[in-house]
Amino acid sequence: MKVSFFVTCIADNVLTNIGIKSIELLEELGCDVVFNPKQTCCGQPLANTGYHKKAKKSMRVLIDALLEDGCDYVVAPSGSCVLQVKEFPHFFRDEAGWADKATVLVDKTFEITDFIVNVLKVTDVGASLTGRAAYHPSCHMSRLLGVKEPPILLLQHVSGLQLVPFKGQDKCCGFGGTFAVKMADLSGAMVTEKVQNIAAAGVDYVIGADGACLMNIEGCIKREGYNIRVYHVVEVLMMR
Amino acid sequence: MSIKTSDLSFKQRMRENLSDSFKRQSIAAAQDLINQKRQECYDKLGDFEKWRDLAADIRSHVLDNLDYYLEQFVSNAERVGATVHFARDAAEANAIAREIFRKKKATKAVKSKSMVTEEIGLNEALEEIGVQILETDLGEYLLQVDNKDKPSHIVIPALHKDRKRIRGVLAAELGYDGDDVPENMTKFVRGILRQAFLSADIAVTGCNFAIAETGTIALMTNEGNGRFVTSIPKTHIVFMGMERIVPSFRELDIMFSMLARSGVGARTSVYMSLITGPKAPADVDGPEELHIIIVDNGRSAVLASEFRDVLRCIRCGACMLECPAYRHVSGHGYGVLYPGPLGAALVPLIAGYKEYKDITKICSLCGACNDVCPVKIPLYETIYQHRRIIVEREKLTNRLEDAAFSVYGNIIGHSRLYRAATRLAFLGNWAPRVSLLKEWCKSREMPVIQKERFRDWFARRRRGEA
Amino acid sequence: MTTHEFIGTVSRALGRSTPQAPAPLVYRHSVHTDVMRGLSQDALAKEFVDYSRTIGAHVVETTRSQLPASLIQVVKDSPAGSIVVADDPLLRELGIVRLLRAIAPVQLWDVDGTPAENIKFAEKARIGIAVARMALAESGTVLLFSHAGTGRSVTLLPEATIYIIPQSLIRPRLTQGMAYVQEQQNDLPPCINFVSGPSATSDIELVRVVGVHGPMHVVHMLVTDL
Question: In sequence order, what are the residues at sequence separation of 6 or more whose Cβ sits closer than 8 angstroms to the Cβ of residue A55?
Answer without folding.
Answer: A43, A44, A46, A47, A91, B409
